Amino acid sequence: MYACCSTVTLEQDLNKKMHIWMLQTIAFALTSLVLSWAESIEYYGEICDNACPCEEKDSILTVSCENRGIISLFEISPPRFPVYHLLLSGNLLNRLYPNQFVNYTGASILHLGSNDIQDIETGAFHGLRGLRRLHLNNNKLELLRDDTFLGLESLEYLQVDYNYISVIEPNAFSKLHLLQVLILNDNLLSSLPNNLFRFVPLTHLDLRGNRLKLLPYVGLLQHMDKVVELQLEENPWNCSCELIALKDWLDSISYSALVGDVVCETPFRLHGRDLDEVSKQELCPRRLISDYEMRPQTPLSTTGYFHTTPASVNSVATSSSAVYKSPLKPPKGTRQPNKTRVRPTSRLPSKDLGYSNYGPSIAYQTKSPVPLECPTACTCNLQISDLGLNVNCQERKIESISELQPKPYNPKKMYLTENYIALVRRADFVDATGLDLLHLGNNRISVIQDRAFGDLTNLRRLYLNGNRIERLSPELFYGLQSLQYLFLQYNVIREIEAGTFESVPNLQLLFLNNNLLRSLPGNIFSGLSLYRLSLRSNHFSYLPVSGVLDQLKSLLQIDLHENPWDCTCDVVGMKLWLEQLNTGVLVDQVICESPKKFAQSDMRAVRAELLCPDYSDIVVSTPTPSPGQLPARTTPSSSTVR
Predict the structure, then answer these.
(1) Dihedrals phi, psi of 184, to nearest 5 degrees
(2) Burial class (CB in 10 A: 0-12, 13-18, 19+), 154
(3) Would strands 60-64 and 54-57 be described as parallel, antiparallel, or unpaired?
């Protein structure tokens, strides 16, 4: 009996000790978790508590303070991190006061879209010396003063669409010497001051949906010689003698730079006509045409691409976006149905109505000719020219395209930017065969099922920028035989499989900048007539001429900047190929990173015999363009290609 009791007591002691050990283990784990959380809060700063979730990725901290009911910036504090994106869209800010951002020196992207901002006081942006992207879309700004953007000397991207801006003072952008993307669509601008862009190297400009009737050459267009993308739709253009200068200027720039149409609003005899199709004699029938002609220097150089540091662009690109955006093609904003704007008459609207709301689009219709079925989470407007819908589902927290119910009837343009879409399914676009533009930029897309775009045989523009795509394969673009513009910048693309672009024979523009590419497969551009190619900010050390560069026979622009070029024997062929390009085709320099003796030197400035003593055996040819190519270029003689 004693032995039995002794055994029971021993088991009880063991159980008690085991219980205590388990409690101690749990307590230790909880303590470690709390300490880890506390260290994180201490490390990132008080702003990164439950009110504003923070996420660190690729040495950049994203601080998400959207839709938090923030009335004043005094409610938050600056993050403790070297470089961060601060997202403050969808709050209740109504005015920006001097020095409110003075301690936010690490901000590289700042989102202030969809607030209630009516005024920006002088000095409001002091302290933001490293800011590269600023989003002020969907606010109530009426004026941009000369001092509005003081302190933003590093700014490259400015988005102020969907405000009430009627006046821009002449020096509003004069200090923004790095500004390349300017988005001003859907404001109330009836004119632009002289020399507004004199010191601004703009490459992308969006002026859609304003009240512009004229754009003079002297003092305005003459300073826009770097523009590679321009949007002028939905303005009440006065097609008279004074518009001859704009017509001449548009004819002088790259034909692909103008996106959309410039449609005459007045006089009545030219109403609804595309400026490109109207002769100078029709514009100015009773006066001497030569008095109004503009004769710019030709060719105008178009030597820029929009570039920023890689961003998880809850940007771009943005709260109203199309890019960075571009970006990258620049983003387009969400048209606000409650904002009454005077638009060009809807009697014969332009071919691309963008984001206009129901009212102006069908103001003179008694009955809609097609069903206006629109997903409940989106806004739609009728594109009368081909009885299709423009569907705007931007920034609606959509996680799956299948959520869009009811499905829109005959969509022509779909904007799904700034959502939470991670997967594109094969069934998502089966009923959208007439789609012309699809914008999926700035989502979380990491998987696109094979042939997901297989039914989009009429699609011309596809935006997949700012996602999490890692690999491109031929099945990805199956069915896109009409595609002309493909935007893939700001992803994490590491691999492009051979034959990936065989399904897009009409591709003209390809943006692959800001990815993780180290090489390209042979014959990747075979059969294409690319006019613009951006490989900027990848991990290329060299590119072969044979099978890659020699297939780029129609180039108007190529961007190879910000790659770790290894300036040894391998790049000699590439160097010689670059040297034979026409002036203006190469955007920016091609800077050597290694070996050390050539670091920070432009590859073209280093003699071939220094790169490689045996360079004399290497001969490279610049491909001869097709006879109808614009602009024409010379054909150097050559033989073998490295």
Answers:
(1) -125, 15
(2) middle
(3) antiparallel
**3-state class (DSSP) for residue 414:** strand
Q: What are the CA-CA distances from residue 221 to residues 120, 235, 242, 248 (Å)? A: 28, 17, 13, 11
CB 436 within 8 A of CB 461: yes
Per-residue tokens: 339: 């904002």
Instruction: Answer left, alpha or beta for residue 396, where phi above 0 means left and psi between -120 and 50 means alpha.
Output: alpha
Radius of gyration (Cα) for the chain, nearest Å? 28
Which pLDDT score, from 0 to 100, does residue 508 have?
A: 92
Tell me which H or E stretch contains 87. strand 84-87
Alpha carbon distances (Å) from 78 to 74, 83, 107, 117, 203: 10, 11, 9, 20, 32
Cα dist. 168→164, 186, 222 in Å? Answer: 11, 14, 18
- Confidence at residue 43, expressed as pLDDT on a 0 to 100 scale: 72
pLDDT at residue number 17: 66
C-alpha to C-alpha distance for 70 and 116, rounded to whole angstroms: 11
- Buried b / exposed e over 401-434, threshold 16 CB at 10 Å, is beebeebbbbbbbbbbbbbebebbeeebbeebeb
Q: What are phi and psi of 415, to 5 degrees?
A: -110, 110
Taking only the tens place, the pLDDT of each residue in 512-539 is 999 999 999 999 999 999 999 999 999 9
The DSSP secondary structure of 383-411, one letter per residue, reads: EGGGTEEEEE-TTS----GGG--SPPSSE
pLDDT of residue 27: 62
pLDDT tens profile 397-441 = 999 999 899 988 889 889 899 899 999 999 999 988 999 999 999
Q: Which residues of the chain have pLDDT under 50?
A: 1-3, 34-41, 296-370, 384-385, 621-642
Beta bridge partners of 500: none
CB 592 within 8 Å of CB 599: yes
Q: Single out the residue of 263, 286, 294 nearest to residue 276, CA to CA.
A: 263
pLDDT score recorded for residue 362:
25
Burial classification of residue 616, based on how many CB atoms lie within 10 Å of its CB (0-12 exposed, 13-18 middle, 19 or more buried)? exposed
Q: How far apart are CA 153 and CA 312, in angstroms?
A: 22
Query: What dihedral angle (degrees, nearest 10) is formed by the CA atoms of 452, 457, 458, 463?
Result: 30
Quick one: DSSP state of residue 434?
Answer: T
pTM of the full structure:
0.49
pLDDT tens digit sequence for 163-180: 999 999 999 999 999 999
